[in-house]
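Researcher: We're teaching a course module on how sequence relates to structure. For the next exercise, students receive a sequence and then see the predicted structure as tokens, so they can try to spot secondary structure elements on their own. Here is the exercise chain.
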Amino acid sequence: MVRLLHSLLVSFCVALSLCGSQTAKGKDADVFLIDMRAPVDRASWHMLSRGLEVAKQRGARLVILSINTYGGQLDMADSMRSALLNYNAPVWAFIDNEAASAGALIALACDSIYMRQGASMGAATVVSGADGMPVPDKYQSFMRSMMRSTVQAAGKRAVRTEGGRDSLVYRRNPSIAEAMVDPALSVPGVVDSGKVLTFSTEEAIANGYCEGQFGSVEEILAHYDMAGSHLERFEPTGVDRVKSFFLSPIVSGILIMLVVGGLYFELQTPGVGFPLVVALGAAAAFFIPLYIDGLVQNLDLVVFLVGVLLLLIEIFVIPGFGVVGILGLIAIVAGLSLALVDNAVVFEWRPESGAMLLRAVAVVVGALTLSVFGCVALGGALIKSPRIPALALRSELSLEKGYVGVAVHDGALAGRVGVADTVLRPSGKVVLDGKTYDAISLQGLIEQGCEVIVERVEANQVYVRRKAV
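Model: And here is the predicted structure for the students to work with:
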């Protein structure tokens, strides 16, 4: 089992490592189209970064991002925004239906914005993922700053003033972008105080937030005399889809449950068993895609591996469960929590960093709780299920079938002196008069070779204690 798991993990690592070198075959693309029709999370960030990478490899002179999303994680939206602002070719956004919340931030990071009839953009107030209520103002302030700086990055244009002089103004009014976040802000002629700003297509065009209304990407290209350009749509490879699958929040949560639950149940059983194999396999599936995409730092892996090492020391070296085991569990939770947040949250502390870290810790601790209760409930149901007889031994050693117990006379063993044949922690084996018996120590750990004395025998079980010197 361990060798099979090792082979699978090696194959998985090799396959994922090849994703950075895969490109589509065919002639170079003039225009490269990337679809963004999912919530903003790690999986969609992976797809966008891969799309931009392939577009660069294909020599695309223009990238069009087709957007239809209601938003998602702020840290992933910030990473997408930075990637778009720093891309070395023009990027146009085509809002195919909705660009709400984090989707609006991503659209504003593009060089030009186009919308279809009936589309909308805005409503970028930061809300809690638990109840959908707006978070405290310090987080809104950070979002306002990102929206404002993103709009300002689009540059300025010259306008003629009433006095006949040319003046430079921003292509898009930064105050409008801030009003999409903060309902307390008002922009004369655009939105009154007390309302979060959301633009329709016509309103976005009227206020300089959209370059035009079109029904499709092909219509946009035809309008700019680019109908004959070679348009290529980004098609994720099988490896990309596998990575996105493992990066999705639901799958990540399940993997965390398997990691924490497997380690917990491994501590409840002697030696190395199936729970540890499951935990290590889930940890590999959780960390490898994140590490390849640069979403996990070496620090996250080191903290997690230190935690696993401490647990192994607790299992095989130190008897019982004490400080080392507790430190190991804390390190494992910390490593998994750090892996759930963007690197900049930790290394570039920002106003929302504390809340993101607390949310990540809550996810891991919640996964621990659910895994323990889930395994207990599911394990009991499976053991009792008549459809899965192999999970539990149901044979009865009854007297009618000829099974009888072997009687051990208390008087024959009580008070005898023997030697611990193995370490008793507290169970083990002892040798009494040349015969080996299963025994339980009444004094905790008894080292191998120590002299013991039989205290009593109950239900064919020998109870011993260390012989006084």
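Model: If you want an answer key for the exercise: Confidence is low (pLDDT under 50) at residues 16-26. The radius of gyration is 32 Å.
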